[in-house]
C-alpha cells in the first residue's frame, strides 16, 4: 500500500474512532491492537483494551453526551503517527453543557500511533475539567492572561 493511501486510511480510522466514541459504540475497541498503550490526563498510562473500557466507564460517571466536531479536525502525519487537533462539546451527567461561554471552546489534541491499520498507542491531551469546576486554577490562568494583556 502506498504511503499516501495508508495515511488516508489511518485518518479515516481516527474519524471512525471519534464517531464510535460519540455514539458510545463498544465496537470502537476493534480499531485497537490488543496491547494498546493509552495515556489520558489524571488517568495516567495503561496498557490493553481493558484500560480503554475502564476509561470509558470513568467518563460515563461524569459525561452524559459528547460530540467531537469533525468539521474542525486538523490532522498531521509523521511515519506511523497521526496527530489530531480538534474541538468538542458535551453534556455532563448533571445536565451542564460545555464548553461554557466563559471557556469559549474545548480543544484537544490526540496522538495515534499505528501498527499497519490498528491503533497501538493513543495519547490524549486535554483538560478534563470540562465544565470548569476547577475554579481556583481557571481564575489563576485567566488573571495571568489579563495581566499580560495590560502590559501590551
Please give a structural write-up.
The radius of gyration is 17 Å and the shape is globular. A hairpin with a 2-residue loop joins strand 7 (106-115) and strand 8. It is an alpha+beta fold and 152 residues long. It has helices at residues 3-22, 49-62, 135-151; strands at 32-40, 44-47, 63-68, 74-78, 81-92, 97-98, 106-115, 118-125. The protein is built from 3 helices and 8 strands, in the order H-E-E-H-E-E-E-E-E-E-H. Strands 1, 2, 3, 4, 5, 6, 7 and 8 form an 8-stranded mixed β-sheet that branches.
Low-confidence stretches: none
Rg from Cα: 17 Å
- The fraction of residues in strands falls at 35-45%
Shape: globular
Overall residue-averaged pLDDT value? 86
Q: What's the total count of β strands?
A: 8
Blueprint of the fold:
Blueprint: H1 3-22, E1 32-40, E2 44-47, H2 49-62, E3 63-68, E4 74-78, E5 81-92, E6 97-98, E7 106-115, E8 118-125, H3 135-151
Parallel strand pairs: 1-8
Antiparallel strand pairs: 1-2, 3-5, 4-5, 5-6, 5-7, 7-8
Task: Provide keyphrases for this structure.
152 residues, alpha+beta, 8-stranded mixed sheet, 37% strand, 8 strands, 3 helices
Brief description of this entry?
With 152 residues, the chain is of the alpha+beta class.
Amino acid at each position: 500500500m502506498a504511503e499516501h493511501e495508508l495515511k488516508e486510511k489511518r485518518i479515516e480510522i481516527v474519524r471512525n474512532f471519534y464517531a464510535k466514541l460519540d455514539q458510545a459504540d463498544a465496537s470502537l475497541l476493534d480499531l485497537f491492537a490488543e496491547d494498546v498503550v493509552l495515556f489520558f490526563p489524571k488517568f495516567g498510562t495503561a496498557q490493553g483494551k481493558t484500560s480503554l473500557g475502564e476509561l470509558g466507564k470513568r467518563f460515563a460517571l461524569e459525561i452524559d453526551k459528547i460530540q467531537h466536531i469533525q468539521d474542525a479536525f486538523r490532522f498531521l502525519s509523521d511515519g506511523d503517527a497521526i496527530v489530531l487537533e480538534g474541538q468538542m462539546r458535551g453534556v455532563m451527567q448533571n445536565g451542564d453543557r460545555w464548553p461554557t461561554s466563559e471557556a469559549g471552546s474545548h480543544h484537544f489534541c490526540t496522538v495515534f500511533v499505528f501498527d499497519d491499520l490498528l491503533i497501538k498507542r493513543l495519547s490524549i491531551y486535554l483538560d478534563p475539567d470540562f465544565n470548569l469546576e476547577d475554579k481556583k486554577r481557571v481564575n489563576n490562568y485567566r488573571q495571568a492572561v489579563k495581566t499580560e494583556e495590560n502590559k501590551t
